[in-house]
Design goal:
Layout: H1 7-10, E1 15-21, H2 34-37, E2 41-47, H3 54-66, E3 71-73, H4 82-102, E4 110-115, H5 122-130, E5 148-153, E6 156-160, H6 172-180, H7 191-205, H8 209-214, H9 222-233, H10 244-257
Parallel strand pairs: 1-2, 1-4, 2-3, 4-6
Antiparallel strand pairs: 5-6
Helix pairs in contact: 6-7, 7-9, 7-10, 9-10
Length: 268
């Protein structure tokens, strides 16, 4: 979905809930979003904080807040971080009530639009805020098909939107890292290329993690490690060759799910 198709909704919301992935806090945001949202209140939510390095997340939050943008890290699975987010939204709801009262108007719900790139965790976040399953979730882009309003409380309404396609995701390195965390369009990037990137990263940052996960002794290069992983898992083709795509997919999925460690892939 293109951002311009959401412009009509921007006219009827009070707050933009910008959603990004805590592992790629910059690259998983829509570039120059403020040019579209104007002066509306904005809160940035870094999802999947349980998969990111906690020290790096703290640095990101401090940097964002120092720049004047309210930001919170949240684990939608456990709800950790949602209390601070509720505080932020309640503060904005109170401000709306006061502003309306000054104009002689009655109370109205705070209307919040959740916005982010595909598969960044918007639906899981909204289900957490609602306290029940109100939108479909899944570990792939494209789950949300169209905008939908969700009543959370008497004073809060949320607009869920499909992932917004952004203009720079095809830049080679950005696309690969977005693919590594599952935020690039499915099948847009060969999984083998993503696996090689992840393997190189792990060899630099956490050289023992792949050996511990897969029970292999191979130390490198990354192509040899992938081959060793495939053999350890029994992913063999006729003739005894390792199935490269199946092996790559296992490494990528394990990285996305945090089985190979908690990592933040860019720093403020």
């Amino acid at each position: 979905m293109a951002l311009k198709s959401l412009r009509p909704y921007l006219k009827v919301v009070d707050v933009i809930l910008e959603v990004a992935d805590a592992r790629l806090p910059a690259s998983s945001r829509y570039p120059e979003l403020e040019k579209v949202t104007g002066s509306r209140n904005r809160v940035l939510v870094l999802t999947r904080a349980d998969l990111a390095d906690p020290g790096a997340t703290a640095r990101w939050l401090a940097s964002l807040q120092a720049g004047g943008l309210p930001a919170v890290a949240l684990n939608a699975r456990t709800g950790e971080g949602s209390r601070f987010l509720y505080q932020q939204l309640n503060l904005l709801a109170r401000g709306k009530r006061v502003a309306r009262a000054r104009r002689g108007l009655g109370a109205a719900p705070l209307r919040v639009m959740a916005l982010g790139i595909p598969n960044v965790g918007k639906s899981s976040l909204l289900n957490r805020l609602a306290g029940r399953s109100v939108v479909r979730t899944g570990n792939r882009p494209g789950i949300t098909r169209g905008p939908q309003w969700i009543r959370i409380k008497d004073n809060l309404e949320l607009l869920d939107t499909p992932g917004v396609i952004w203009p720079h995701w095809r830049e080679p390195v950005t696309a690969l890292w977005l693919g590594a965390i599952g935020c690039a369009p499915e099948d847009a990037i060969p999984v083998r290329e993503i696996a090689l990137l992840i393997g190189d990263f792990l060899l630099r940052e956490a050289p023992g993690n792949m050996a511990a996960r897969y029970g292999i002794q191979e130390q490198g290069p990354v192509e040899a490690i992938l081959d060793a992983i495939g053999r350890a898992r029994g992913f063999l083709l006729p003739g005894g060759l390792v199935d490269p795509e199946k092996t790559a997919r296992v490494l990528v999925n394990d990285f996305r799910e945090g089985y190979l460690g908690r990592f933040t892939l860019e720093m403020p």
